[in-house]
Amino acid sequence: QVQLVESGGGLVQAGDSLTLSCVASGRTGNIYAMGWFRQAPGKEREFVAAIAGDAGKTYYTDSVKGRFTISRDKAKSTQYLQMNNLKPEDTADYYCATRPAGGMYYPSREGSYDYWGQGTQVTVSS
To answer: Residue 122 and residue 83: Cα distance in Å, rounded?
Structure first.
């Protein structure tokens, strides 16, 4: 079992920055990938970014490329999502997720992840 706790959400204005954190606890030794998803009001949850493997390969959805940066501190079992130049359309609940090693990995698929956090809310006003 892996427990995930997100933090760092809040209310900001367009153009501002926020950094989300996700701390993993429990059986963290087998984590292969960590990802961020978001769900806006009335919409389905969507992939935002992921970081995977020993090399820390990163993946981003097109709408956040150049604005968001995913990173991790493996020693602290923590991943981060640095969000710059936030836009009102970034308003959503943000969830972190983890995937253990093994099998084919599709970063943008929810089914690729076994454990999920409870989410942290990000609201961007125009």
So the answer is: 10
Task: Say which residue the tokens 């959400």 belong to.
Answer: 9
| Phi-psi sector, 19: left (phi>0), alpha (psi -120 to 50), beta | beta
Beta bridge partners of 122: 10, 92
Helix, strand or coil, per DSSP, at residue 88: helix
Q: What is the pLDDT of residues 45-71, one digit of tens each?
A: 999 999 999 999 999 999 999 999 999
- Alpha carbon distance 94, 6 (integer Å): 8
Mean pLDDT of 22-45: 95
Beta bridge partners of 60: 49
- Cα distances (angstroms) measured from residue 58 to each of 11, 26, 39, 81: 27, 24, 20, 12
